[in-house]
């Protein structure tokens, strides 16, 4: 038997572009951050934005999230009629609702309980009964292992739990694209590993596309199937593709240095 | 789009077969799980629950909440559930959602009895009072360290606070006190004109502004402007663990953060008050000149005749006291603030409330004492 769902579930062979970035130049107040960025994030990718500290990773993420307008170039999302900034405001807002974002520290609203944090996007954008919303927010919290913490305030839970609660909120509206800003920052190795597993699980079960900003090599090799490497000095991207393949095939010493933690240079 | 469809029936072997079809999306409105649950509860209990999802077109979290409700009821009743028929993604998410057992530490939503709440507030008030005394004591010790030359703070911080609470407050202090001088003269003029005693407007404005009104108005402006900003600054520093960082370096936050603010306000408030005195008198002069046909020279002479140095010094002394009170209130609320955005907001509010209340109380005390002493 072949249902529509199964067709969709197995239809990963042909890669369909989810986000297409072309000729992107980013600048802040007149000073250039990055230029000539060209890459494609495919449907159901786990796409990593890599780069050293201060190389512009978070700035690129903010551009992808529509928080900053590019100085030049376009960012096109699947299913939209034009590039993000070429669309009218209502269409842009509809597009934003397809995104889920996990910010570095979780960015939970401190005056609301965890359940209220997760429920807010649902109350704003989904026409649902209060009971359904509360069932959904409990479900999302259970998915990240925070079942029973519905009535806690963010100040009462640990940093790792805040991060997971932030993820529950990011998933509230069943997003198409999930963005993670440094998901393993401030987590112990085991929690960080569990978060990686969770990301893989979510990609497979939610059928979402995932974009992760990180410089944690262990995470990168564990989850990524596509990536872009930013270089702060040359102010552009110096590699893109599957990180494992980059490690095996790239000849660029900067790329190898990054992916081997400098062992390329240290050992000659 | 296919219609959402839910069917369930018991087989001859006691198995309850649940068939899901269509597009199970929240936006399309989903069937309630109540019907199936009632069927499961019906005696005799089904031997097993199985799922058929062969023609399921799509799903989102709505399907998951539906299934979770079903699964948890089955677990309570001890009915076996066969999840094999569910799409793979759904089973994975269900496994994920049930992987970590619910924490039993869920708080009870039962409201506390009234007596317990009253008691809690009273205890909280008492603790707060103790903390306030401790803070004032610490500030005093810090001041002693300053006189002994042992207190450490950056001079540039002190100058910055000095500039912020002094020079940058001038415009608002000027505007408010000029207007208050005008108002005072205006109210006085209406009454005094009936007795032909217009000239005494100068006495009213001069004595009123110098002794009470200029220090109080300046104090209230500074509370809202500087006291609130102290509380917000220090509260945010507390939230960012900046104050802890000072403590672990062995630098007392009291010396480093509170002392410069305290000194700056205690120094600047009398100067602001002096400035406010002059502008208040100028406000009175405008009314006297325009409404009462009193010439500026007459007005100034009458003012000089009416006010004495002790009026001026009393006002300046009061404003120095207010400066200390406002700085202490702002810094105390900031340093004692919680570590969240709303806690910093509360700290700011309570700094302003504490500041204004302490200004009014201090004015009452000083006024009574000066009356008794005949100043």
Textual characterization of the structure:
The complex is a heterodimer of chains A (268) and B (375). Chain A is an alpha/beta fold and 268 residues long. Chain A has eleven helices and nine strands. Chain A has one domain (15-260): Rossmann fold (3-Layer(aba) Sandwich), CATH 3.40.50.300. In chain A, 39% of the residues lie in helices and 23% in strands. In chain A, a hairpin with a 4-residue loop joins strand 8 and strand 9 (236-240). The longest helix of chain A is centred in the last third of the chain and has 18 residues, at 189-206. Chain B has 375 residues and is α/β, with parallel strands linked by helices. Chain B has twelve helices and five strands. In chain B, a hairpin with a 4-residue loop joins strand 1 (5-10) and strand 2 (15-24). The longest helix of chain B has 39 residues, at 201-239. Chain B is elongated. Classes of the chains: A alpha/beta (268), B alpha/beta (375). Chain A binds chain B through residues 1, 3-6, 8-9, 110-111, 126-128, 132, 135-136, 139-140, 142-143, 145-155, 174, 198, 201, 204-207, and chain B through 26-27, 53-62, 64-65, 68-69, 87-90, 92-93, 96-107, 109, 338-343.
State the CATH class of chain A.
Alpha Beta
Fraction of residues in H or I helices of chain B: over 70%
- Largest sheet: spatial strand order of chain A: 5-6-7-3-8-9
What is the N-to-C succession of helices and strands of chain A? HEEEHEHEHHHEHEHEEHHH
What is the terminal separation of chain B in angstroms?
90 Å
Largest sheet of chain A: 6 strands, mixed
- Overall geometry of chain B: elongated
> In terms of structural class, how would the helical and strand content of chain A be classed?
alpha/beta
Percent of residues in helices of chain A: 25-40%
* N-C termini distance of chain A: 57 Å
Count the E strands of chain A: 9
Mean pLDDT, all residues of chain A: 85
Architecture of chain A, according to CATH? 3-Layer(aba) Sandwich
């Amino acid at each position: 038997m072949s249902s529509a769902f199964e067709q969709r579930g197995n239809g990963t062979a042909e890669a369909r572009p989810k986000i297409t970035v072309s000729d992107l130049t980013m600048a802040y107040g007149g000073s250039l951050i990055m230029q000539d960025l060209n890459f494609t994030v495919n449907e159901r990718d786990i796409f990593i934005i890599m780069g050293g500290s201060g190389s512009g990773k978070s700035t690129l993420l903010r551009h992808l999230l529509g928080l900053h307008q590019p100085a030049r170039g376009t960012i096109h999302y699947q299913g939209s009629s034009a590039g993000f900034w070429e669309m009218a405001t209502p269409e842009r807002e509809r597009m934003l609702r397809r995104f889920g974002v996990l910010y570095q520290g979780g960015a939970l609203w401190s005056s609301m309980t965890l359940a209220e944090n997760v429920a807010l996007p649902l109350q704003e954008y989904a026409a649902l009964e209060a009971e359904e919303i509360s069932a959904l927010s409990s479900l999302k919290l259970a998915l990240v292992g925070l079942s029973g913490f519905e009535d806690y305030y963010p100040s009462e839970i640990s940093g790792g739990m805040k991060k997971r609660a932030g993820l529950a909120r990011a998933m509230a509206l069943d997003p198409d694209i999930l963005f993670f800003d440094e998901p393993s920052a401030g987590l112990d190795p085991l929690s960080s590993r569990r978060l990686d597993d969770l990301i893989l699980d979510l990609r497979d079960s939610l059928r979402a596309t995932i974009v992760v900003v990180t410089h944690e090599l262990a995470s990168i090799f564990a989850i990524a199937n596509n990536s872009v490497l930013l270089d702060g000095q040359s102010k552009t991207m110096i590699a893109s593709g599957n990180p494992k393949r980059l490690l095996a095939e790239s000849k660029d010493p900067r790329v190898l240095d990054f992916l081997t933690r400098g062992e390329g240079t240290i050992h000659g | 789009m296919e219609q959402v469809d839910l069917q369930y029936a018991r087989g001859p072997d006691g198995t309850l077969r649940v068939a899901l079809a269509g597009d199970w999306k929240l936006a399309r409105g989903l069937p309630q799980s109540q019907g199936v649950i009632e069927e499961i509860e019906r005696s005799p209990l089904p031997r097993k629950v199985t799922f058929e999802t062969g023609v399921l077109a799509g799903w989102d979290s709505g399907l998951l909440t539906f299934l979770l409700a079903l699964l948890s009821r089955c677990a309570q009743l001890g009915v076996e559930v066969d999840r094999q028929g569910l799409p793979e993604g759904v089973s994975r998410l269900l496994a994920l959602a049930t992987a970590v057992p619910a924490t039993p530490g869920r708080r009870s939503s039962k409201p506390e009895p009234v007596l317990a709440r009253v008691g809690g507030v009273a205890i909280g008030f008492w603790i707060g009072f103790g903390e306030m005394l401790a803070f004032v004591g610490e500030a005093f010790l810090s001041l002693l360290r300053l006189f002994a030359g042992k207190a450490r703070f950056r001079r540039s911080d002190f100058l910055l606070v000095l500039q912020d609470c002094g020079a940058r407050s001038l415009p608002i202090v000027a505007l408010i006190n000029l207007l208050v001088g005008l108002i005072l003269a205006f109210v006085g003029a209406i009454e005094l004109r009936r007795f032909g005693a217009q000239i005494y407007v100068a006495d009213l404005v001069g004595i009123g502004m110098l002794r009470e009104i200029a220090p109080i108005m300046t104090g209230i402006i500074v509370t809202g402007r500087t006291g609130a900003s102290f509380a917000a600054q220090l509260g945010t520093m507390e939230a960012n663990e900046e104050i802890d960082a000072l403590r672990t370096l062995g630098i007392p936050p009291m010396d480093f953060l509170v002392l410069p603010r305290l000194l700056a306000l205690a120094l600047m408030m009398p100067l602001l008050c002096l400035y406010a005195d002059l502008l208040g008198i100028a406000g009175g002069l405008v009314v006297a000149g325009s409404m009462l046909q009193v010439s500026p020279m007459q007005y100034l002479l009458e003012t000089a005749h009416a006010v004495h140095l002790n009026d001026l010094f009393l006002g300046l002394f009061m404003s120095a006291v207010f400066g200390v009170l406002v700085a202490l209130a702002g810094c105390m609320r900031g340093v004692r603030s919680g570590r969240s955005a709303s806690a910093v907001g509360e700290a700011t509010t309570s700094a302003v409330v504490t500041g204004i209340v302490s200004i009014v109380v201090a004015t009452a005390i000083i006024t009574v004492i000066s009356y008794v002493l005949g100043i």
